[in-house]
Amino acid sequence: MDENTPHIAFGCAAFTDKKLPILKKPEFLTAPQIELSEIPHLGKLNIRCDSINRDEVSKLIQCNLPAEPNYMSNKAGRFAVSLGPDEYLLLAEPGSESQLEQILRSSHLLEHISVVNVSDAFCAIRLSGIKVRELLSKGCPIDLHPNNFYSNRTAQCELALANVILICLEDNEFVCICRTSFAEYVLDWCIDAGQEYGILISKKI
After folding, report:
1. Residue 10 clears pLDDT 60, i.e. is over it
2. What's the average model confidence in pLDDT over 69-98?
């Protein structure tokens, strides 16, 4: 396999027809104002539990599940995203998701929670740069102003009609979780929409 072909989620090449890196920018720009890269092999678990069991689950996965929807918490390289009142997406370091799944399934909480390994179904894309909010606003209907969508805020929304989970890490840094089958479409859209700002797409972070 060509060394420039990226791998997303356990060897599943989502950007199969792209030779990376890709640089698209107007001639008057000396450097791109947006950078896009994959976060390869990130473990992803969908967890369902109610507020009664939330704290116990948090201890088992060693990362606090947020009490409020549309927020994220992180600890020691793990990120817990609240998708709703009783649904969470845990983003874990590569290779740890199977062990975490087994820990939850073997606990006394199994009758009260649900855990599904969705690592192969979704990919994670990091977007950053001074124009990243402008880029995302072209295809995302939510209010992305820094006063409204700030660090540790999350949202299930659409990006160019693709269903995604958008996570704000910093003022100008985001993670977009999308289905692996839509990853190449999302990449193509970002290249097209971001060309006026200058966009660099690289293989990995």
Report:
1. no
2. 95
What are the DSSP calls for 110-141, one per residue?
A: GGG-EEEE-TTTEEEEEEESTTHHHHHHTT--
Fold topology of 43-117: Alpha-Beta Plaits (3.30.70)
Taking the domains of the chain in order of start, what are their residue ranges? 22-40+121-202, 43-117
Alpha-carbon Rg for the chain, nearest whole angstrom, is 17
CATH of domain 22-40+121-202: 3.30.1360.120
Half-sphere exposure of 136 toward its Cβ, with a 13 Å CA cutoff?
Answer: 32
pTM reported for the whole predicted model: 0.89
| Ranges of H-type helices in the chain | 51-61, 97-105, 132-137, 183-194
Residue 3 CB coordination number (10 Å): 6
SS3 content of the chain, % helix, strand, coil (to 5): 20, 35, 45
